[in-house]
Amino acid sequence: MFVRGAEQRKARMVCFGCPVRTECLGEALDNKIEFGVWGGMTERERRALLRRRPDVRNWRELLEAARQNYADFEEYQVS
């Protein structure tokens, strides 16, 4: 979503309920997309994350693995 200022908060809220949020964020990070809200993160947040983790070669894989680990943990907690 390509919005600025206060509209970014609204766009982020849409992202939080989206079933493809992880894939979207991974796409933006892997391709260094500069503008808009992707996967619930603003361009500023994505730039900061990329600077903090220059070692990551495939964000989509990393994010999907983290999501799966969380799901496995949640399943374990319920058992």
Report what the structure shows:
This protein is mainly α and 79 residues long. It has one domain. Pfam families: Whib. This is Transcriptional regulator. Keywords: 4Fe-4S, Disulfide bond, DNA-binding, Iron, Iron-sulfur, Metal-binding, Transcription, Transcription regulation. GO terms for molecular function: 4 iron, 4 sulfur cluster binding; DNA binding; metal ion binding; protein-disulfide reductase [NAD(P)H] activity.
Q: What labels would you give this structure?
A:
transcription; iron-sulfur; 63% helix; Whib; mainly alpha; 79 residues; DNA-binding
The main sheet comes to: none
Low-confidence stretches: none
Percent of sequence in beta strands: under 5%
What gross morphology would you assign?
Answer: globular
> What is the arithmetic mean of pLDDT?
90
Q: How many distinct helices?
A: 4
**What is the tally of beta strands?**
0
Radius of gyration: 14 Å
Oligomeric status: single chain
Provide the structure class.
mainly alpha
Pfam families: Whib
Cofactor: [4Fe-4S] cluster
Protein name: Transcriptional regulator
Organism: Saccharopolyspora erythraea (strain ATCC 11635 / DSM 40517 / JCM 4748 / NBRC 13426 / NCIMB 8594 / NRRL 2338)
